């Protein structure tokens, strides 16, 4: 046993190597606030196809659908010939190659889409372990995952491992050195000696023994970490953003690497003594992919790239052909009876259509569902503070909720009889409890399974916010709290927030007597990924507090006075109401009824009626995707079905969430009002006439690109390879430390989306359509943040400009605007109402133009 | 009543057949399982009602005699009494709930059909166990439950970890089968014709056994304890249960939360007259339960994942049941069983809710190893009241974190030595083995010719060779055909050894061979059709995904595997019993060796099956 203590030449820089390596790790935070993001953020600086190919080479994942799938779409007419031609032109080859490229598309090939030989699956570490005939992962991972899981645990285990501020290494040291029982595998003298050293030295000593060649150190660390990307990424995220945890933990990636390398060495030592080969001594190194050449060796499968672009362009064309013929907007002579703000979310796309159809005198607007107000929020019966805004913002204001009925004891809400089975029990009490109450659970289980939707004995979830509370919005004192937060907003701050939103959506005059601010949330039972179903603009929380805050602020006379000075005149008879649409149950809750005395009753009743009608129809439209939904044409049956879905403990798909999201349309409602978008579009309101220099579009894009683009790519890659980029099926998932889910008891944390969220998703990149001239957009792009511009220039999202008057369309490329030319004979399908379009259809549907003028109520 | 009893037994089987034949669409499968489950529920309900109307009297029913030869008799025998009734009730409730739950939960999941077939297989096995009239019948059901458990753990066959954990659970099951095999054998020997459960209860009331058979009873009790501890994840086998939670959540709930985990308790309840006879055996059982309780309730404290926590809580309660049994509190055990089964099943089913739930809960639980709340502090001595020694805290934590280190311990005791010896055998040259064998047999031959020893001594070198063959199969890493042949060779040698012991048993040996040889041939045929090893040159340890690339071959290999492990669809199931029966007439040691080899062969065959059929093609097929 020789442990090299010195003689580490300075050529290997550990910290720099860890920083380089860590960008390959997933950046998904704890599961309680699920934030959709580009899963391949590591390669975002490359053009899309190149980046995807590089990622495939590192992670060993599939990047495209099987060729057969694209060929089937072509045969069914969902990939058009003109789109194939367009995609071939985009491939960068000269025209004489086009015929050959086209012929190649139709060759049958089952294996082309399989993952390439990659670092994660076939790198030096795996070759070395095959050579040693040792399944080291199965020996080391369970030990590491147990240590990490218990150290980072946020509240599942009864005994907490970590002490306050204790670093991970110190904790392992404590267990290994200061315990009467040995901590396997650190139970030998030399391993314990190693633990005494700082992590840097441990890492270098281990690498020297295991790898032996400095040129390969970095690659070995990367492969080690990619052996369990979930835990590595979680540790890195906590290291960089300690606030992501409710109970802070002191851990760094370096410590993880040190302990894991030491465990590997210790276990190999136990198995082979000191006689095992290092990586350097591997007999055949020539075929193994190396970190130094993965970028050069990453190759884009050309036919799949062309197929994929053709598929996407066909989808884009389906929208563009419909937009082309939309009339330029007319000024509407009548003031609407009510206006409603909805979240930009694609799930609200159909709800808005049905609301307008139910009562054409209602006008709708779309904006990110935090409604421009970013704050931290602690609900009345929540144990923790959460951020209510996109995670790119860091809010400073704290808003507290309190009950309007002060007599309710807070503890009654949680420590009820129905929660006994999640409480900790001592041994004897556990024995009694099992004997006495166990039989009762037979009744409960039978009830929950055979009568889903019935409200007996059920957890209340975060989205079901009770309306009997009050938000403390106005700041009474400028002193920050201990954590440096401000309790509430001042009137000026409120006016800033309200003005910001109103200007973004282009609503600065013609206010209706009633304005309803509709946030959204989603209730689901027995679903650890519930946060992924909530409002993405609120970082995976229901948007209710934001809607309530916005309504309160906009109703405040002081705020209105400030706004009037700034040129936004909200008439006195206009009244704002906060509400929340539950997208899984298709129900709506109106908040703060105790403040309604100024509310125009008649308009409110009309709105409620239209909304109810709209939600019924919305539920019915959603049912077309649920194969177990009732066949009948009754709206009531459909609505009952979606409600039961959201409250059954055995339903892994409470709703389809953002599945099939594809478009993000920024413009006036008139542009999309007559379109059937199949719930595939994010809709942001924007008035091109109020934005002569593109400042507003910059603000809008700064939210749309990371939020909508993040949602889109999170679905895209989870769908492309659910086993690598996604979380696999959720059925065997096990909640680990409230941090995430894993397969079984000793699996790695799974990142990305579960297969039950993405299985009907048609993976295509987001197409942002902006109703604005290219000249103004060019002005805006010059002001846009460089990292966001890179999304556009590298084609991680696509963009089209739609001229506000002529409806001419221009496709954005890094090299410039391409005037979109669609075949003459290609026109958008027409229908006279939405029902006729989707009845009996179970796949995605092209954009239709709806001609029927909705009946007036 | 008999009719109802039979329909309880056979309806799940009918379910399997119908789903296999007609289950092309999920809707059909869901409909079939709905009707079968409810028909089974009705039968169980009817059966229990009729049974209640007869005044809760124990009821025995022999359908027919499966095999009868000489003094050996294998009847298909059912038995219904209070214990079966309670278990049946639990089966009815939980099975109905799970099937209803899975109908939606598994919707659109690849393997929907496979899942329902397996879960009905489980119900079939379970009903056989619960209503078995003799220990042989119980063993048949036990094996079916074991295999369906194995298949459901490996349900997600694309990933390595479920497959590995399936093998882990199967290995423990298989090992504990030794207990049941030998227990059944001793049972035959000691009670001859009266090994029916119905006779067992009255056996000891009248005739006190001879003191000489105390030892026999003790060994037999130990065997039963091993079998029960393995199935119920009791000391020292606690470790497999949490790791078995790899299948869809409801399957974990029904197997490891509710029913399968309580089968050990059932076995003990059934065989109570055998082991409750002596205070020593009761104490051993009590100790097993108590040790389990300590380890499991400590391990539960440090589970940072929700399913592991429920698993250890369940193990701890089963530990209590073992203790209660040792104290003779049968009725309490039955109540406790129902409570624990329903509670754990429910906890597992709603385990994904924990995140939503915990966000609402204050962090009010006492989360330190050392007591922090004043009420419990007061019980500690003053000097350490505020400074519970850190070393003790750490020690407790390490103990709980490593779950008592049972796995490592069991592995180094039972697994690694076999692996090592096997590797040595595989490393030695064929001529060395032949030479050693030749010399040994030659010298025995000389002794025999000289009239010093009888022909039956030849059984010993044969048994030795059998062990070597089994060990060789056990530690093969690359050569699948070699493993299959070594397993078959081991069986052949076992047959030969028994023939030397009991030449008049040739008919029975042929009967045994009639189960083994076809399975072996089938397996070899499949293995010869495999792609060349060069295909897997870069990934020698990748699972080869035959279930995906060639489902038919995978299915054939599965049947061959079932045959080789003497699963109760093959004559070898009875043949195995017969072989042991005859061997133990001469030398119990040889019977024990044969039983051990059967177990090892089963594990070796299971490994080959998993290595070849599980996995996903993407692990060795490459794209661009």
Keywords:
heterodimer; A: six-stranded mixed sheet; five-stranded mixed sheet; B: 624 residues; 28 helices
The number of helical runs of chain A is 30
Low-confidence stretches of chain B: 362-366
- The structure class of chain B reads mainly alpha
- Helical content of chain A stands at 40-55%
Number of DSSP-assigned strands of chain A: 22
DSSP strand count of chain B: 2
The percentage of residues in β strands of chain A lies in: 5-15%
Global mean pLDDT of chain B: 86
The SS-based structural class of chain A is: alpha/beta
**Strand percentage of chain B, roughly?**
under 5%
How are the strands ordered across the major sheet of chain A? 13-11-17-18-19-20
As a whole number of angstroms, the C-alpha radius of gyration of chain B is 25 Å
Task: Determine the N-to-C terminus distance of chain A.
Answer: 87 Å
The biggest sheet of chain B amounts to: 2 strands, antiparallel
Q: What is this structure, in a nutshell?
A:
The complex is a heterodimer of chains A (857) and B (624). With 857 residues, chain A is an alpha/beta fold. Chain A has 30 helices and 22 strands.
């Amino acid at each position: 046993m020789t442990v090299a203590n010195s003689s580490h030449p300075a050529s290997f820089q550990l910290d720099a190597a860890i920083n380089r390596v860590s960008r390959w790790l997933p950046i998904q935070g704890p599961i309680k606030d699920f934030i959709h993001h580009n899963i391949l953020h590591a390669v975002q600086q490359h053009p899309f196809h190149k980046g995807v190919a590089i990622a495939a080479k590192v992670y060993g994942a599939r990047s495209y659908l099987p060729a057969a799938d694209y060929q089937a779409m072509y045969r069914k007419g969902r990939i058009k010939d003109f789109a194939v031609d367009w995609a071939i032109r985009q491939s960068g080859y000269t025209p004489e190659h086009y015929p050959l490229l086209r012929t190649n598309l139709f060759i049958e090939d089952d294996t082309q889409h399989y993952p390439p030989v990659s670092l994660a699956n076939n790198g030096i570490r795996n070759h070395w372990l095959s050579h040693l005939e040792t399944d080291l992962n199965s020996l080391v991972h369970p030990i590491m995952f147990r240590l990490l899981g218990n150290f980072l645990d946020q509240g599942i285990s009864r005994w907490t491992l970590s002490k306050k501020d204790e670093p991970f290494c110190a904790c392992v040291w404590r267990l290994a050195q200061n315990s009467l029982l040995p901590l396997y595998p650190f139970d030998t003298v030399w391993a314990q000696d190693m633990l005494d050293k700082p992590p840097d030295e441990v890492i270098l000593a281990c690498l020297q023994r295991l790898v032996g060649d400095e040129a390969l150190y970095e690659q070995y660390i990367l492969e080690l970490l990619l052996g369990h990307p979930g835990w590595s990424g979680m540790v890195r995220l906590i290291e960089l953003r300690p606030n992501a945890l409710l109970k802070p933990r002191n851990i760094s990636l370096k410590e993880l690497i040190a302990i894991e390398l030491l465990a590997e060495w210790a276990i190999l030592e136990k198995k082979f003594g000191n006689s095992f080969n290092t990586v350097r001594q591997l007999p055949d190194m020539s075929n193994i992919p190396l970190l130094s050449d993965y970028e050069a060796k990453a190759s884009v499968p050309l036919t799949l790239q062309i197929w994929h672009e053709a598929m996407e362009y066909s989808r884009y064309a389906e929208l563009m052909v419909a937009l082309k013929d939309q009339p330029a907007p007319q000024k509407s002579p009548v003031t609407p009876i009510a206006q409603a703000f909805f979240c930009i979310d694609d799930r609200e796309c159909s709800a808005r259509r049905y609301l307008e159809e139910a009562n054409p005198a209602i006008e709708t607007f779309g904006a990110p569902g935090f409604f421009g107000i970013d704050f931290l929020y602690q609900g009345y019966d929540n144990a923790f503070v959460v951020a209510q805004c996109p995670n790119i913002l860091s809010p400073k204001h704290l808003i507290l909720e309190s009950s309007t009925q002060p007599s309710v004891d807070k503890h009654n809400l949680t420590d009820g009889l129905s929660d006994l089975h999640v409480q900790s029990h001592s041994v004897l009490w556990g024995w009694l409890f099992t004997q006495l109450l166990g039989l009762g659970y037979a009744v409960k289980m039978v009830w929950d399974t055979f009568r889903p939707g019935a409200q007996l004995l059920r957890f209340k979830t975060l989205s079901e916010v009770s309306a009997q509370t009050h938000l403390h919005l106005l700041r009474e004192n400028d002193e920050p709290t201990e954590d440096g937060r401000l309790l509430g907003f001042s009137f000026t701050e409120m006016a800033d927030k309200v003005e910001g939103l109103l200007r973004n959506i282009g609503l600065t005059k013609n206010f209706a007597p009633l304005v309803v601010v509709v946030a959204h949330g989603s209730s689901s039972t027995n679903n650890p990924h519930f946060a992924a179903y909530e409002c993405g603009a609120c970082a995976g929380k229901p948007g209710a507090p934001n809607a309530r805050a916005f309504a309160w602020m906009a109703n405040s006379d002081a705020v209105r006075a400030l706004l009037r000075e700034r040129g936004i005149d909200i008439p006195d008879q206009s009244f704002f109401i906060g509400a929340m649409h539950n997208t899984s149950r298709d129900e709506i809750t109106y908040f703060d009824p105790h403040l309604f005395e100024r509310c125009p009753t008649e308009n409110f009743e009309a709105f409620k009626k239209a909304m109810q009608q709209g939600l019924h129809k919305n539920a019915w439209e959603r049912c077309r995707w649920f194969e177990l939904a009732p066949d009948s044409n009754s709206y009531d049956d459909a609505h009952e079905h979606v409600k039961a879905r959201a409250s059954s403990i055995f339903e892994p798909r409470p709703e389809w969430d953002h599945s099939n999201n594809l478009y993000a349309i920024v413009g006036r409602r008139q542009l999309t009002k007559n379109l059937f978008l199949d719930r595939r579009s994010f809709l942001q309101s924007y008035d091109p006439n109020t934005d002569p220099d593109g400042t507003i579009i910059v603000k809008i894009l700064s939210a749309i690109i990371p939020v909508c683009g993040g949602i889109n790519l999170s679905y895209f890659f989870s769908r492309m390879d659910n086993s690598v980029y996604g979380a696999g099926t959720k059925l065997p998932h096990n909640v680990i430390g409230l941090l995430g889910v894993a397969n079984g008891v000793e699996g790695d944390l799974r990142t990305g989306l579960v297969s039950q969220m993405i299985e009907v998703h048609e993976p295509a990149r987001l197409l942002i359509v902006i109703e604005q001239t290219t000249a103004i957009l060019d002005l805006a792009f010059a002001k846009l943040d460089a990292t966001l511009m890179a999304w556009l220039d590298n084609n991680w999202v696509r963009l089209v400009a739609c001229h506000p008057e002529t409806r001419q369309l221009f496709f954005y490329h890094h090299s410039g605007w391409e005037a979109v030319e669609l075949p003459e004979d290609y026109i958008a399908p027409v229908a006279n109402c939405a029902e006729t379009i989707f009845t009996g259809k179970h796949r995605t549907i092209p954009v239709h133009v709806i001609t029927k003028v909705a009946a007036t109520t | 009543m008999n009719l109802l009893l039979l329909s309880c037994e056979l309806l799940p089987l009918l379910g399997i057949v119908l789903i296999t034949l007609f289950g092309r669409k999920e809707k059909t499968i869901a409909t079939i399982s709905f009707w079968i489950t409810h028909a089974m529920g009705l039968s169980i309900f009817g059966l229990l009602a009729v049974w209640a109307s007869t005044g809760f009297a124990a009821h025995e029913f022999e359908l027919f005699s499966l095999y009868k030869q000489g003094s050996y008799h294998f009847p298909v025998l059912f038995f219904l009494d209070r214990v079966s009734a309670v278990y049946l009730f639990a089966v009815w409730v939980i099975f109905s709930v799970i099937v209803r739950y899975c109908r939606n939960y598994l919707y659109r999941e690849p393997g929907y059909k496979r899942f329902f077939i397996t879960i009905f297989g489980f119900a079939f096995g379970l009903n056989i166990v619960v209503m078995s009239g003799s220990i042989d019948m119980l063993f048949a059901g036990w094996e079916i439950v074991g295999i369906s458990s194995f298949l459901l753990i490996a349900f997600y066959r694309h990933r390595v970890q479920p497959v590995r954990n399936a093998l882990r659970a199967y290995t423990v099951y298989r090992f504990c089968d030794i207990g049941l095999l030998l227990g059944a054998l001793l049972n035959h020997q000691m009670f001859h014709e009266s090994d029916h459960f119905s006779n067992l209860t009255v056996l000891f009331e009248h005739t006190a056994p001879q003191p000489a058979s105390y030892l026999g009873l003790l060994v037999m009790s130990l065997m039963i304890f091993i079998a029960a501890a393995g199935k119920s994840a009791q000391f020292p086998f606690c470790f497999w249960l949490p790791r078995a939670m790899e299948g869809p959540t409801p399957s974990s709930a029904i197997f490891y939360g509710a029913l399968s985990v309580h089968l050990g308790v059932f076995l003990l309840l059934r065989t109570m007259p055998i082991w409750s006879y002596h205070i020593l055996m009761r104490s051993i059982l009590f100790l097993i339960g108590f040790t389990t309780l300590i380890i499991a309730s400590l391990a539960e404290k440090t589970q940072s994942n929700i399913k592991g926590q429920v698993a250890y809580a369940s193990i701890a309660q089963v530990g209590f049941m073992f203790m209660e049994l040792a104290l003779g509190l049968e009725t309490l055990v039955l109540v406790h069983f129902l409570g624990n089964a329903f509670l754990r099943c429910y906890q597992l089913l709603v385990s994904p809710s924990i995140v939503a739930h915990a966000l609402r809960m204050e962090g009010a639980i006492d989360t330190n190893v050392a007591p922090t709340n004043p009420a419990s502090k007061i019980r500690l001595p003053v000097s350490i009241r505020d400074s519970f020694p850190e070393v003790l805290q750490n020690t407790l934590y390490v103990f709980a974190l490593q779950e008592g280190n049972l796995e490592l311990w069991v592995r180094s005791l039972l697994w690694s030595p076999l692996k090592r010896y096997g590797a040595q055998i595989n490393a030695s040259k064929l001529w060395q083995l032949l030479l050693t064998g030749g010399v040994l047999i030659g010298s025995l031959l000389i002794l025999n010719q000289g009239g010093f020893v009888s022909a039956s001594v030849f059984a010993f070198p044969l048994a030795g060779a059998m062990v070597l063959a089994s060990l060789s199969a056990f530690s093969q890493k690359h050569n699948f055909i070699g493993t299959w042949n070594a397993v078959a060779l081991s069986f052949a040698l076992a047959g030969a050894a028994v023939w030397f012991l009991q030449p008049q048993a040739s008919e029975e040996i042929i009967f045994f061979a009639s189960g083994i040889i076809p399975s072996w041939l089938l397996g070899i045929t499949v293995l010869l059709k495999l792609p060349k090893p060069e295909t897997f040159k870069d990934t020698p340890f990748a699972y080869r995904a035959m279930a995906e690339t060639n489902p038919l071959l995978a299915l054939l290999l599965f049947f061959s595997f079932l045959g080789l492990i003497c699963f109760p669809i093959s004559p070898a199931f009875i043949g195995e019993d017969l072989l042991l029966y005859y061997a133990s007439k001469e030398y119990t040691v040889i019977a024990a060796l044969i039983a051990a080899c059967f177990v090892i062969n089963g594990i070796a065959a299971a490994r080959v099956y998993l290595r070849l059929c599980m996995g996903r093609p993407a692990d060795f097929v490459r794209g661009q």
